[in-house]
Write a structure and sequence with these properties.
59% helix, Fic-like fold, mainly alpha, disordered C terminus, 3-stranded antiparallel β-sheet
Length: 357
């Protein structure tokens, strides 16, 4: 039985309610936060796209050298093999998602188009089609019983259940999205890649549900950092799914925690952005370097200051090198830098400031 069919039996634990009350004030400030960076929002979203494309690809075992990842994600170079084409497709998919979130229509046709888009020139056509319904040898009934003779029809019923639940507004949209995700990956409507597609759909549903922080904070980077826990909670949530006894609360809690973390990351980005606009950019980059580890990379600086140009970062690195404060370890874009002076390890932004909303 679908998770979405059992919503009426769900009871939200107090800690999950607390997570929602922590999230609501952030969501209420969506427009103000986006307006703060409106001048550079395209640049910031482009960085989010690059990060999401990289971490999504890594989550699903795309094996490429860092230099090839960077070339495909940042320079749009010609893809040479299936893995590189997959990374290219992912990046293009994220660009479309951020540009057209509000026009996304949850339907079997659009989902089918999405899997075709993600795996074009990667998988044979036969591997990205709707799967055939497996005939059961026993007499027990499940999702694909006589009411849904095909996987496509079962998917359409799942979509209808989600749309109906969302229309009545009896449940939080994030809770509905997590239930939809577990139903989708266990339904396995396509021959292959249901989990990757399901996670992409979960992301779109969250982004479409007013969690605007996902435009400027990489959701898939947050998932990647706790991938082991994500895998376990997904497995736990799928236990007894066929009998209608799946429990998604652990995964639900995990996703809410990542959403809250995305808003905290957005606050740090806004803080850096505001300082970037009000201070000497070279001095501010030097201050950032002071807070980094003894050995650091240019990519770490760029991640914290996406709106500052490469030329400004390069000039600052050159100045500090000439002042004998830092020296390069190697050559090229991926070279690391080492500080030639001692700095006291400072607490992270989350330890320094308790954000009050």
């Amino acid at each position: 039985m679908y998770c979405l069919k059992n919503l009426e039996y769900a009871r939200l634990p107090n800690d999950i309610i607390k997570l929602y009350t922590d999230l609501y004030p952030f969501v209420g400030r969506n427009q103000m936060m986006l307006k703060t960076v409106s001048k550079d929002i395209d640049t910031l979203i482009a960085q989010t796209v690059r990060l999401d494309a990289y971490y999504f690809a890594v989550l699903f075992d795309a094996e490429l050298s860092e230099s090839r990842f960077r070339a495909i994600i940042t320079k749009d170079v010609q893809a040479k093999n299936k893995t590189e084409r997959f990374v290219r497709n992912i990046k293009q998919a994220f660009i479309k998602i951020h540009e057209e979130t509000e026009s996304f229509n949850l339907s079997s046709t659009e989902i089918f188009d999405m899997i075709q888009f993600l795996y074009r020139e990667v998988e044979p056509v036969s591997q990205v089609q709707f799967a055939k319904t497996e005939k059961k040898r026993d007499k027990t009934t499940d999702l694909l019983s006589s009411a849904h003779p095909t996987k496509r029809e079962a998917l359409e019923q799942l979509i209808a259940s989600f749309s109906e639940a969302r229309k009545h507004s009896d449940f939080e949209i994030a809770f509905l999205a997590v239930n939809f995700y577990i139903d989708f990956i266990n339904l396995r409507p396509f021959v292959k890649h249901n989990k990757a597609l399901g996670l992409m759909l979960l992301y779109i549903l969250l982004l479409d549900s007013n969690f605007k922080s996902l435009h400027l904070a990489s959701f898939f980077e947050l998932l990647y950092k706790q991938n082991t826990k994500l895998e376990k909670l997904t497995k736990d949530a799928s236990h007894n799914w066929g009998e209608g006894l799946a429990d998604v609360m652990g995964l639900h809690r995990f996703i809410l925690q990542r959403l809250l973390e995305s808003y905290q990351s957005l606050h740090e980005l806004l803080r850096n952005y505001t300082f970037d606009q009000q201070t000497n950019k070279s001095d501010y980059i030097e201050n950032t370097i002071n807070k980094l580890d003894e050995v650091f990379t240019k990519e770490e600086i760029r991640a914290l200051h996406p709106t500052i140009s490469d030329s400004t970062i390069n000039r600052t690195l050159k100045r500090l090198r000439d002042e004998k404060k830092i020296r390069p370890l190697g050559k090229g874009r991926s070279a690391k830098w080492m500080k030639l002076y001692q700095t006291q390890k400072k607490p992270s932004i989350y330890e320094q400031i308790k954000f009050k909303v």
